[in-house]
Amino acid sequence: MSTVAYLLLGLAVIGALAYALYEVTARQRRLMAELTRLERLTAEVAMSAEAVLDEVDRRVAQLKQLANALAAGAPGAAEPARPARRQRGGARTAPRPAQEEAPAVPHDAAQEPEPEAAAQTSPDEAAGAAAADRYAGVREAVCRMADEGKSPLEIAEALQLPRGEVQLILNLRGKSHQMG
Asked: Global pTM?
């Protein structure tokens, strides 16, 4: 009779250990999912912070130019540049000039745009293009290494990027391939 009791006790202990192992594994999975989500958010915040810092640097440079122009007494320096307006969705547009500032243009000149004027872009468009170009190289390198079969951790270490940023790029690449 004592053998049966020991067997039942042993089965109860094994059952308790199996349940404890299951709970630990479930908690570990939840923690890993949360860690992955936090890494993605961190990568997004880092990318946004760099874009904000680039915009701050651009505006500081504009302020320095205005200050230098005011100090030198340059004509037209007393009129500060108008800030860009926000459209719906947060995009910025170049400010509209006042009607009195528009120069009179002969009819023939208005029909043929000057090549220099057509090639000019607003400072906001140029800053956006520069930020996109900077990340294009990073995205290409991450995608190339992923295609070579490297893990996100190996890619992050090789490119000296946060692992979450690498995962974000790979996740976004997967979504763009699925959409296209």
From this structure: 0.32
